[in-house]
Amino acid sequence: MKIGCPKEIKPQEFRVGMTPNAAHEAVAHGHEVIIEKGAGLGAGFDDAAYIAAGAHILDTADEIFAICDMIVKVKEPQAVERKMLREGQLLFTYLHLAPDPEQTKDLLESGCTAIAYETVTDDRGGLPLLAPMSEVAGKLAPQVGAWTLQKSNGGRGVLLGGVPGVGPAKVVVIGGGVVGTHAARIASGMGAEVTVLDMNLSRLRYLDDAFRGEFRTSYASKGNTAELVAAADMVVGAVLIPGAAAPKLVTREQLSTMKPGAAIVDVAIDQGGCFETSKPTTHEDPIYDVDGIMHYCVANMPGAVARTSTIALGNATMPFMMALANKGWKQACADDPHLLNGLNVHAGQLTYYAVGKALGLDVVSPQLVIK
Predict the structure, then answer these.
(1) Count of H-run helices and E-run strands, the chain
(2) Catalytic residue check, 266
């Protein structure tokens, strides 16, 4: 199979879809790997490293899309890339279709087959290709939130950990999953007073037992959430419904109850965000003010630490990429129901229920598609 990896063109995106190690693995299995010139530079991988791994280098993405059977990326294809996709071609990347009707329309019209990292599952009910980036984003959230809180950035001028005689910042993390757990650990490690909200009591018990009071936990009822958000210096949105649009858990009206200059970090912005006032931003212009509350809503947070993120993502995606290349996508999905859960689009048909529900589109069962 010809596997292509173009350079990411989303603003301020420095990750790359394949590491030289992944390229070496594919070549060792008899596949041809083609990398766009300079694709790995943002993550610290030069063209020579790919050539040493047995890959070929081409000058433009157009050439790669034109000749490759499978395209491996990081972020969702941008409009210009979607025009290059063709019928029968396999796309393997993050998609986040639920809040993105334009991308969904273009993918359906292209006739390609698209498997989304974020909806591939595992035996434990987890999301193994989303988890590495969730870990990175969770650990980054308190760091960027602390920066947003600085007065020069429009924030309250509160130091996350406080100093002797001055109390620490109050941080509320909405969602106790992978993102929320890592955000809570880092924020508490920075000295903040942290509360994690979740509606899953089993998860709250786990967090209490595993972290032995390192941070507080609380049930995410509407009243409790409103009370804690109003008292917070920073709120981290970390709620995920696999493949679906994120629920809006904090309304615009609630902003008026918050402290002036408080910071919101919406890690769920890829799925539409879990604050009513959230809108995607970039690393180049990451924050904006709504009613005196500072919003940080960068849609590709892990891109800020591109080398760490690329290696972590590559470790997770490589086995699935190899299965797709070695067996072909239909057989690979037939053999692995967890990989089949990643199938979002095939030959003009939508195959993921949560996306169809979010966008009001008809959905075909992925089991029927592979038969």
Answers:
(1) 15, 15
(2) no
Q: What residues have CB less than 8 Å from 284, skipping those under 6 apart? A: 11, 12
Tokens of 43: 């993550």
Dist CA 302 CA 3 (whole Å): 24
Q: 24, 31, 96, 346: which is the annotated catalytic residue? A: 96
Q: Which are the contacts of 233, defined by CB distance < 8 A and separation ≥ 6? A: 149, 156, 158, 169, 170, 171, 259, 262, 263
* Residue length of the chain: 371
Residue 216: CB partners within 8 Å, gap ≥ 6? 193, 194, 195, 196
270-310 pLDDT, tens digit each:
889 999 999 999 999 999 999 999 999 999 999 999 999 99
Q: 65: which 2 tokens?
A: 């899309």
Token pair for 68: 């490759």
Q: Strand pairing of 263-266 and 56-58?
A: unpaired
Given pLDDT bands bounded at 50, 70 and 90, which one contains residue 144?
very high
β-sheet bridge partners, residue 281: 298
* 3-class secondary structure, 230: helix
Q: Where do you find CATH 3.40.50.720 in the chain?
A: 2-120+305-370, 134-299
Residue 346 annotated as catalytic: no
DSSP three-state, residue 146: helix
**Alpha carbons 145 and 141: distance in angstroms, whole number:** 6
d(CA 34, CA 23): 9
- Beta-carbon neighbour count of residue 268 at 10 Å? 26
Contact indicator for 170, 214 with CB cutoff of 8 Å? no
Instruction: Name the maximum alpha-carbon separation found in the chain.
Output: 67
- Stretch 36-50: mean pLDDT: 98
0.85 exceeded by pTM? yes
CATH number, span 2-120+305-370 = 3.40.50.720
Residue of 270, 295, 336, 338 with catalytic role: 270
- Looking at the domain 134-299, which fold is it? Rossmann fold (3.40.50)
Plot region of 292 (φ>0 → left; ψ -120 to 50 → alpha; else → beta): left
Strands 287-290, 263-266: pairing is unpaired
Helices 201-211/178-189 angle, 10° precision: 40
